[in-house]
Specification:
Elements (H helix, E strand, L loop, with lengths): L24 H7 L4 E2 L13 E4 L2 H5 L7 E6 L5 H4 L9 H18 E11 L1 H14 L1 E9 L14 E8 L28 E6 L10 H11 L5 E4 L6 H8 L3 E6 L2 H13 L1
Parallel strand pairs: 1-2, 2-9, 3-4, 3-8, 5-7, 8-9
Antiparallel strand pairs: 4-6, 5-6
Helix pairs in contact: 4-5, 6-7
Length: about 270
């Protein structure tokens, strides 16, 4: 990850209170001056650069050169009107669908012909993303994993699963099956078989994010090599970026929440 925000000694604030969980005043003094926006993003296929940007996903994607990204890992917000549009402006389902079409269209443009995209989503939106992805990509499979931190919106069966859609730009793509092999739910013996049912990975409430790092590490191992370019258009608290640094991948990410961006900068710096 870029060293552009390291070794900064600008004292912006003197109040020792912690303004956001995980951020201290020292952190703010270190990382606030280094925040970059989409206006700072200027790269080309010949001159790619890692970076974390305060930006809406579509604005950031439009600045990425065509066929420059090896892998996209995305967790689209369920309430994009709160995180990517004007706060308090609710979308209709039709507007939400069109918004997803827009960023997926840009994602298809920036992916290399051998590139892949993984979309993490709750089961309520799984069918929608299957339909959307089929308009732009070649769907390879749906992965199911144990998300124990799903908020319960109903009063019947407790939902403890979530989906990950795996799609590729073409039928020629990178996939190393061996690192992905796991035990399936009906495998009582110790024999490992390769499966899209990831029962050995579940959400961890002890981590900063409810998404376990093993989830993103497995995706990176399956669909990228070291030094490949990885893009996360909805960074959140930087789980994908942390995994990329730990596994030697090059990373570009966008986030609209300044506090989340600062936490991400700190986490990747310390990874």
């Amino acid at each position: 990850m870029s060293d552009s925000y390291k070794n900064l000694n600008i004292n912006l604030l003197n109040n020792p209170m912690e303004t956001f969980p995980g951020l201290t005043i020292d952190d703010l003094n270190k990382y606030l001056p280094a925040i970059r926006t989409v206006e700072d993003l200027s790269i080309s296929n010949e001159k790619m650069e890692e970076g974390l940007y305060l930006s809406k996903c579509i604005d950031g994607l439009r600045k990425i050169p065509a066929e420059s990204i090896d892998l996209i890992i995305a967790r689209p917000p369920e309430d994009n009107w709160e995180t990517t549009l004007d706060p308090g402006h609710g979308n209709t389902l039709q507007e939400y669908y069109k918004w997803n079409q827009s960023w997926l269209n840009e994602s298809q443009r920036v992916l290399k012909n051998t590139g892949s995209i993984y979309i993490l989503c709750p089961w309520e939106y799984s069918g929608m993303y299957q339909g959307l992805l089929s308009n732009f990509f070649h769907i390879q499979t749906r992965i199911t994993w144990k998300n124990l931190c799903n908020p319960q919106k109903n009063k019947t069966w407790k939902n403890q699963i979530a989906d990950i859609w795996f799609a590729t730009k073409t039928d020629e793509f990178l996939f190393s099956q061996q690192p992905v092999g796991i035990n399936t739910i009906d495998t009582i013996s110790t024999k490992n078989i390769e499966s899209n049912l990831w029962v050995d990975i579940s959400s961890n409430t002890n981590e900063i994010s409810s998404y376990p790092q093993r989830l993103f590490s497995r995706i990176l191992e399956a669909s990228s090599f070291k030094l490949n370019w990885i893009l996360d258009p909805f960074m959140g608290l930087g789980d994908v970026g942390v995994a990329c640094k730990q596994q030697g991948r090059r990373f570009i990410g966008f986030e609209t929440n300044k506090d989340h961006l600062l936490v991400t900068m700190k986490r990747i710096d310390n990874a």
